[in-house]
Amino acid sequence: MGIAEASFDAMGCRAPSLALAAAALVATGPAGAEGDAGKGRRLAIEHCSRCHVIDDYNRFGGIGSTPSFQILAHMPDYLERFQTFYARRPHPTVVNVPGVEAWTKLPAFVVKFTVRPEDIDALVTFVETLRKK
């Protein structure tokens, strides 16, 4: 099932196959292979730090119930999580992906931002640096 064919859940969100969604953006191999860790950190600070703790940048920030990037980076499925974050709740309400139809009709609760494949590569490359800490 592709993103366009996904079914709606009880909250009015379509539930796409995360594997297919990841393939749509990261079709050239493992994300992070050519990413820029500095750019990934800047993107994380600019867009993700409003909810997540991002390394030493906002050690006491984020939302308490939201996992930090450090915790996410050490999960066994971290790579899939970061490659497909835009398709995981609540991200579809705040992330625009060129070429990928939004699969929710829920209103955004913060300013939306756009993410491109190279941004995901950079973000994953940054996360790889957190795994080494």
What is the topology?
Elements: H1 18-25, H2 37-48, H3 69-73, H4 78-83, E1 95-96, E2 113-114, H5 117-131
Parallel strand pairs: 1-2
Q: What do the pLDDT scores average to? A: 79
DSSP helical segment count: 5
Total count of strands: 2
Mass-distribution shape: globular
Strand ordering within the main sheet: 1-2
State the distance separating the first and last CA atoms: 38 Å
- CATH topology: the name is Cytochrome Bc1 Complex, Chain D, domain 2
What is the percent of helical residues? 25-40%
- Largest sheet properties: 2 strands, parallel
Indicate the structural class: mainly alpha
- Rounded to an integer in angstroms, the radius of gyration calculated over CA atoms is 14 Å
- Portion of residues in beta strands equals under 5%
List the helices and strands in order: HHHHEEH
